[in-house]
Amino acid sequence: MATRMRGHGRVSAQVAVLALRHPAFSVIGTHLPDGLTARPLTSPVPLYHWHAVWNTATAHPTFNRTLELIHAYARTHHWHRPPDTAWWLPQPDRDTLRATS
What local confidence, expressed as pLDDT, does residue 72 receive? Predict the structure, then answer.
């Protein structure tokens, strides 16, 4: 059973796990509170299909340049290609990746 959580980020996920006693997927970059355990997901490596979302009526004039820089960084670090190790992505996202490759 899925539970919709309010908030975002690592702390919100950790608070929800503690309060609701449901597991969650999250990036771990700090010390975990007592009672929580984390295990890295390494094989297959889970990929995440990221999107930039913005309001076209209120987008800052530099937003397009920011997207260009993100794309350039991603290309430099080969983020546009799946890793050489075993990886996993939901089928609809895998189909999109295949269509844009």
Answer: 93
Contact 33, 18 (CB under 8 A): yes
Question: Two tokens at 34?
Answer: 């007592």
Side chain identity at residue 69, one-letter code? L
How would residue 46 be classed by pLDDT, with cut points 50, 70 and 90? confident
Structure tokens at 86: 């075993």
CB–CB of 85/47 below 8 Å? no
Give the dihedral sign, CA 50/55/59/64.
positive
Q: What values do phi and psi take at 87, rounded to 5?
A: -140, 165
Phi, psi of 9 (to 5 degrees): 90, 180
**Structure tokens given for 49:** 């299909």
Distance CA 98, CA 95 (A): 5
* pTM to 2 decimal places: 0.48
Peptide bond into 61 cis (omega under 30): no
Amino acid at 4: R
